[in-house]
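Before the break, one more example. Copy the sequence into your notebook; we will annotate it together after we see the structure.
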Amino acid sequence: MKLAFPPAALKPAGLLLLALTAAMPMSVAAEDASQIQEVISTAGLPSSSVGIFVQDPGSGRVVLAAGADQPLNPASAMKLLTTYAGLEMLGPAYTWKTEVWTEGTQNGDVLVGNLVLKGSGDPKLTLENLWLMLRAVRNRGLREIRGDVILDRGAFELVDTDPGAFDGDATRAYNVAPDALLTNFKALRIQLLPDPGGQSVKLFVDPPLRNVQVENRLRVTNGACGDWRTLVAPQLQDDGTGARVSFSGSFSVNCGERSFYLSVLRHAPYTGALLRQLWGELGGTFAGNVKEGTPGPGAQLLFTWESPPLSELVRDINKFSNNVMARQLYLTIGAETLGTPGTPEKASRAIRAWLDRKGLAFPELVLENGAGLSRIERISARHLGTLLTSAYHSQVMPELMASLPRVAVDGTMRKRLKNAGVAGQAHVKTGSLDGVKSIAGYVLDAQRRRMVVVCIVNDPAASGAAAALEDGVLNWVYQRP
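Here is what the structure looks like once it is written out:
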């Protein structure tokens, strides 16, 4: 059977897939597997760097397997394991609770004492949700705090990590580490807007924090927009409690309005500054310090904020491949199963025990943070596919499948395979790191059969060739007789 290839993918790697599927039977014989390996190598991808696995989850029949048993780095496709485990172990209705406690006495609208915020790892205590939480505190009659604000971050292990350790870019929002009192993803939104005359670039920061100073030295150009994000070139100075960010690169007027996210503060200083900003906007005041600690023996619970349910949050994790949210869930699994503080080691033990109970033996599995933002995480294409087959028969299948990007429609797959037959017919999680490309999910083929599909490439050249390979596999699965 010949592959009906997406026109956009007819590049050198397109020739690879035309040959790959030229005579592909529905079950893979030894000679076909050998041909697959040979054709993969013609694209400059060694057989040891590619794993492909296609399975009918209804019958369990393996439709295609090539390099499926070798351990490979799946990048963000590892989020499938974390979210499936979370949905089953915690339940789709699970919510995170952030508690507000008071220490001292409240006289009218004045608290003579401390206000304590106790986190449990809420992955989505965003600017809007934190504002709603503080608004609820204001509605309970509290306006002035004559004491300190204390941050209880003890639900997760407190580790002083280097945010730039993964790829050397400490300011990238995807490198934000998990925290039991994570607020607004610890990020600043930077908006750039060239003035109509093309003489300067306006720069806006949201939220505006008093311990973040921003210096705008951007030069205006009239050239092509190009790689504007790199040309902006932010430079960071961090003294532990505050930061100075300088923008001294260039920005073209032809870019129009653009925005991106930066992380420039550590967790406690960021959350403390954000609380001051929002509390002041709500008409509240406090002149004390922001400290770390726990509620004292005489503290009283004032209010509890509940996150959206896990069934909603897994959509953010998988559709948009949110690393810090996945890491929050990963640590929560460990904390809820083996007790606080949540640690990566507890999370790994809890998930492995869950796999054992399900009869899923993945001896090659390596877990580090459950998000795929790792150079050491490993799983085989076969076992990632086996996991998806297990999920297909799980009571949480609807929640998990709905959380995956829909091909050519939304999430990280919204721009791919727009004109292909498989467009809109597959829910697929993507993964991408330097040297890593992966897809894993479900395809509803032209005969209305659901298929599990996994394709992982680990190679320095894993970019265009790997993407074309993935798209070709998806389209082949959709169109096969």
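Residues 97-159+267-308 form a domain with the D-tyrosyl-trna(Tyr) Deacylase; Chain: A; fold (CATH 3.50.80.20). Residues 230 and 249 are 9 Å apart (CA to CA). Try to locate both features in your own notes.
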